[in-house]
């Protein structure tokens, strides 16, 4: 039995699909029955738990061969990242109580970057798991190609995508969430009985904003260009979108743009290219 947290999201769902396709038993950890109904219909066992409730989460994970652990994303955190700190403490306590045979935790490229930024929340998760007496794999994917979903409408209507990643010809590691899910499932099935390890993951090739615009042009069959948003406009834009504390997100973007958010070593490569992802995004838009 494999317990999957975050199963209603893109990555957790991809992990579950990959395991089910291989005939594995999956326990969907969800906050309420309604959110898990679709997975129950696919043959998953349901366990009700909020990841911030250590006792309930421990019960949900108990007896499992493997656990996929996903820290719920907080895109507008408090300056001290208190929201994530509370959840991380509960997740650590639950793992210590449940003692699954192995854990695969979703982290990120740049989790241990030298400058504090939005991704530092996952560095906090890594630090909390590093001394667990359990086999733990930290899976660090690159930028999700699916983030481009926000740009499909603008590309279709105006032939433009506004980019905070810049310069526009700078390629960064990106990966499809389906590849992240398949890799996580494969890691859960490996017989890693001891120790901790880090697995970094990107797609078949690195992508720049210009590459993304060209891929959207192919998918939409119209001309699309990338337009750089000046940094001095970022904060006002983010406040207008309702963010209270945009600094961590801005520093994350700085990290990609300046190169200090990067992989620590050679990364594995997924097989899903940008055109395949964009076909799905365009069809869904």
Outline the structure in words.
- The chain has 11 helices and 12 strands.
- With 285 residues, it is α/β, with parallel strands linked by helices.
- The chain has one domain (2-284): NAD(P)-binding Rossmann-like Domain (Rossmann fold).
- An 8-stranded parallel beta sheet has the order 3-2-1-4-5-6-10-12, with helices on both faces.
- The protein is globular.
- The mean pLDDT is 96.
Category from helices, strands and their pairing: alpha/beta
How do the SSEs run, as a string of H and E?
EHEHEHEHEHEEHEEHEHEHHEH
Number of strands: 12
CATH topology tier name: Rossmann fold
Strand order of the largest sheet: 3-2-1-4-5-6-10-12
Question: What is the percentage of strand-forming residues?
Answer: 15-25%
* Biggest sheet layout: 8 strands, parallel
> What is the CA-atom radius of gyration, in angstroms?
19 Å
Q: What is the CATH domain class?
A: Alpha Beta
- Any idea how many domains? 1
Helix content: 40-55%
Round the mean pLDDT to the nearest integer and report it.
Answer: 96
Query: CATH superfamily name?
Result: NAD(P)-binding Rossmann-like Domain
From the spread of the alpha carbons, the general shape counts as globular
The CATH architecture classification is: 3-Layer(aba) Sandwich
Oligomer: single chain
Low-confidence stretches: none
Please give the alpha-carbon distance between the first and last residues: 35 Å
């Amino acid at each position: 039995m494999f317990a999957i947290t975050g199963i209603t999201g893109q990555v957790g769902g991809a992990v579950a699909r990959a395991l089910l396709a291989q005939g594995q038993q999956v326990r969907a950890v969800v906050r309420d029955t309604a959110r898990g109904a679709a997975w129950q219909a696919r043959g998953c066992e349901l366990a009700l738990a909020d990841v911030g409730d250590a006792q309930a989460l421990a019960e949900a994970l108990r007896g499992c061969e493997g656990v996929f652990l996903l820290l719920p994303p907080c895109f507008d955190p408090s300056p001290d990242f208190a929201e994530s700190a509370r959840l991380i403490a509960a997740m650590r306590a639950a793992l210590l109580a449940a003692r699954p045979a192995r854990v695969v935790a979703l982290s990120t490229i740049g989790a241990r970057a030298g400058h504090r930024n939005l991704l530092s929340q996952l560095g906090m998760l890594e630090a909390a798991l590093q001394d667990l007496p359990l086999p733990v794999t930290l899976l660090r994917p690159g930028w999700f190609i699916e983030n481009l979903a926000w740009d499909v409408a603008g590309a279709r209507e105006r032939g433009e995508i506004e980019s905070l990643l810049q310069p526009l010809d700078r390629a960064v590691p990106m990966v499809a969430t389906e590849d992240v899910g398949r890799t996580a499932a494969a890691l859960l099935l490996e017989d890693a009985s001891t120790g901790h390890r880090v697995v970094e993951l990107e797609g078949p090739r690195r992508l720049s904003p210009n590459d993304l615009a060209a891929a959207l042009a192919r998918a939409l069959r119209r001309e699309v260009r990338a337009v750089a948003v000046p940094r001095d406009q970022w904060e006002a834009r983010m406040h207008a979108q309702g963010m209270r504390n945009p600094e961590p997100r801005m520093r994350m973007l700085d990290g990609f743009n300046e190169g200090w958010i990067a992989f620590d070593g050679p990364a594995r490569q997924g097989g899903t290219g940008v055109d395949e992802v964009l076909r799905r995004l365009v069809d869904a838009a």
